[in-house]
Design goal:
Layout lengths: L2 H22 L2 H5 L2 E10 L16 E6 L1 H12 L11 E14 L3 E14 L3 E16 L2 E11 L14
Parallel strand pairs: 1-6
Antiparallel strand pairs: 1-2, 3-4, 4-5, 5-6
């Protein structure tokens, strides 16, 4: 097996695992996929054609910096105090078109397309889709997610969204 095919297999395994862990709500295992300095960014649409460019200076749909921010999000999702999210939607992630965009000695830049079916007890079926841009860090344990930009095709959200629904 060539080196490129081997690394793509590892990338696919990680991305498919992340989707499965979100669907199964295995939060701690999902958190373990991320580096301590991770970033998850869901930019908003600045216009019909352009996303905001700087998460620090723009209004975002979601911007989580560092693993403590992800852990706080998981705590809110799993807490009985998060009544806006209860009961949690059932989800089914589908990830396709995974491509290796760039590789350095420590980082892999990955692009992929995604759709998620959410079965929400209050709103019914909701389909969402877009694309993912990952930065994966090569480390002792293999690959970990250092950054994930989630581009959501919708520019107006009817209802609520959370990290497991994207």
């Amino acid at each position: 097996m060539s080196a490129k095919i081997e690394i793509l297999k590892k990338v696919e395994d990680l991305i498919f695992l992340e989707a499965d862990l979100l669907d199964r709500k295995q939060w701690q295992n999902w958190l373990d996929l991320y580096t301590s300095d991770c970033v998850i960014w869901v930019p908003s649409w600045d216009s019909e054609e352009w996303l905001v460019k700087d998460p620090e200076l723009s209004v975002n749909m979601m911007y989580l910096v560092g693993k403590p921010a992800l852990e706080a999000r998981v705590h809110r999702i799993t807490s009985v105090d998060a009544y806006a999210s209860l009961p949690l939607s059932r989800t089914m992630h589908s990830v396709t078109n995974i491509r290796l965009v760039e590789e350095t000695s420590t980082i892999l830049k990955i692009a992929a397309k995604w759709t998620v079916l959410c079965l929400d007890p209050r709103r019914g079926k909701i389909w969402r889709g877009g694309w993912y841009d990952y930065s994966l860090e090569k480390c002792q344990k293999g690959l970990q997610i250092q950054a994930k930009k989630i581009t959501l095709m919708e520019d107006v959200i009817d209802g609520t969204i959370d990290i497991y629904q994207l």
